[in-house]
Amino acid sequence: MTMHTTALTVAALSLALAAGLAQAASLAPQRERTTDEAIHADHATYQATQDRIQALNDAGRPVRDYALSKAQCWLDVSFHEYTRNDRSDFPQEALDESVKLIVAMEQGVSPILTDTPLVNRAARLREDLWKRLGAIHGTPGFACAQQAVACGEVELVHAGNEFNQQQWRHAKPYIQIAEDMVSDAEAMARTCGNVEGAASSPAPMALTANVLFEFDRRALADVREHSLRTVDRALARVREENLTLTAVRLIGHADRMQGQGFDYNQALSRDRAETVKAYLIAQGVDTSRIAYEYRGDTEQVQACDGIRNREALRECLLPNRRVEVKFEVAR
Description:
The structure is a single chain. The chain is α+β, with helices and mostly antiparallel strands. It has 2 domains: 3-190, no CATH class; 206-330, CATH 3.30.1330.60. The protein is built from 9 helices and 4 strands. Helix 3 packs across helix 6 (142-190). The longest helix has 49 residues, at 142-190. The protein is globular, with a radius of gyration of 22 Å. It starts with a helix and ends with a strand.
């Protein structure tokens, strides 16, 4: 896309948004969300916005469409936090993002921008997940993965908002939702080709999982069970999609807490990679196809700045204590 085309797109979107201001969806001010009347009015606002999304779908825009999906997911996270009595600006700002997309679709703007604002100054968590979603944009498989990509991006913002408000313990469930959506999006992109509007050439063939370890631990018994299941699901997908596993690349990591120094963290990340290698061999993966490397604490995906409580910090840094498992596959 040229700079001239981009400028025209932005201008068109601005005009569309201006035309839709009369249809903006506004919630009651936070201090007024205490009466039945105010809450009833807000629920009516949510329903009216849902009706506009439904009307776009009824007019022929498919549910899996990126913009329609993203509008729905922004609406869903806004309502979710509203019902949880979130008194911050997040419910309104997330609702605003939904309406912006709705207006653009109603006004026929094309292409619709795919940026994902960090509403309410949400923290940008898990850069690795953002990159995996970003890698699907522009590929042939995006036609099939649009809905999962859109909602994965929104859930990452949702998690970042929760992190700012109540730290990692409250953000973690939404990160796990986003992780599942990223994996689903990658699977949909891999198997794309039979859906109307999808290109016939396949997306890059790769599956990714992250095995997470407890603090200063390296044995299989020290792995978080839910993360080990991501490896099992990836292996199951290889079988279900009738793929050939050509290679497995393991990359071991440690978190940034260098209590025993840089060299110690290097060795810790190496041992973690070796633990995962042994697990894969036990699952029937040919040892000759597995290669591993280790990077200590040099590649952090979660900063956890500002957390002073040591136990809370260790939990927040969990995504850094990982072994990346990259399955290379072919049909």
